[in-house]
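Writing this down once: the sequence line spells out the residues, with the fold written below as integer tokens. This is how one looks:
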Amino acid sequence: MDLSKSGEYFSPSLCRGRVHIVGCGSVGSTVAENLARCGITKFVLWDFDVVESHNIVNQMFRYKDVGRTKVEALKDILCEINPEIERDIELHPDGWQGETLGGYVFLCADSMKVRQDMVKTHEYVPQVRAMFDFRTRLEDAQHYAADWSDMEQIRNLLASMNFTDEEGLAETPVSACGITLSVCPTIRTVCAYGVSNFINFLRGKPIKKMILTDAFGFGTVSF
């Protein structure tokens, strides 16, 4: 992959571990696409779902992907960006089932319980370097992250997840038909911040533990 436009700023060789995308929907597919354009190749994709027609508006998938598993469709998209990904990528079409991971973990699953279980399972696993979490609504979104060498950050990340899937759904805008509302500008804004946080972390900067952004109100704060 020709990285002449970005290589002097960020080298993918700084990524010393596999990049796990847990959930390949709106956030997961967008994060993966951003990372692929930065030269990342060692992806592990986790998702049990298939692409549906309504996914096209806020996810990276194309109409021709409808009916395919998300991991297979996303793999093709990533390999079209960078064919070198083909030799490194791993797919898990059954989703995460409690396996112990290492490297960098992007928590993009729809279920808060899955994310809670992921953090609890890996709380004392030193092979994890960092986790990056995302929450989206219609116009605003939140990004949380933890450097896995800092136990306080890990516990703060877990504390930020102290609500159920049902409680989270109650705060999410839905259509009259009960479909969760989501638009791509919100997704792409928060994913860009998450990927930037990841890149800064690899370049030796302190991780941002929380980023709050409003894609339509044009406001962002970080801590």
Summary: The longest strand covers residues 128-136. The mean pLDDT is 96.
